[in-house]
Design goal:
The chain has 105 residues and is of the alpha+beta class. It has one domain. Helix content is 19%, strand content 38%. The chain is built from 2 helices and 9 strands; from the N terminus they run βββββαββββα. Strands 3-4-5-9 form a 4-stranded antiparallel sheet, with no helix packed on it. A hairpin with a 2-residue loop joins β7 and β8. The longest helix has 14 residues. The model has no long low-confidence stretch (mean pLDDT 88).
Length: 105
């Protein structure tokens, strides 16, 4: 667990290493970790492959309702467990294509 103070309110949230769902997930390398979200390379479901994943420390509802250090599960979550959102391998390629087309207009 880690803590965060936002607009004078203290929140507790799961660290990236605490997030092991989908089951068997392990953090390989943290790419970005700020007060809102974490982007990481993870070992996905006990495989040898590395995947790009993201999660937010708090959901919008938690930010409105949690107070005094109550633990935020974050987003996404599954049945109250902090869960990684695994991004598709071809996402970066798709973003690059979109930006290239946008610049060409």
């Amino acid at each position: 667990m880690d803590t965060l103070i936002k607009q004078g309110i203290k929140y507790s949230y799961y660290t990236p290493e605490d997030c092991i769902y989908p089951k068997g997930t392990k953090v390989h390398k943290i790419l970005e970790n700020n007060e809102d979200f974490v982007l990481a390379l993870i070992i996905y479901r006990n495989s040898q492959d590395v995947a790009l994943a993201v999660r937010w420390h708090m959901s919008d509802r938690e930010e409105k309702n949690k107070r005094n250090g109550e633990t935020c599960v974050g987003f996404p979550n599954s049945f109250g467990k902090p869960t990684w959102f695994v991004l598709p391998d071809n996402l970066l390629n798709s973003i690059q294509k979109y930006l290239y087309k946008k610049v060409q207009k």
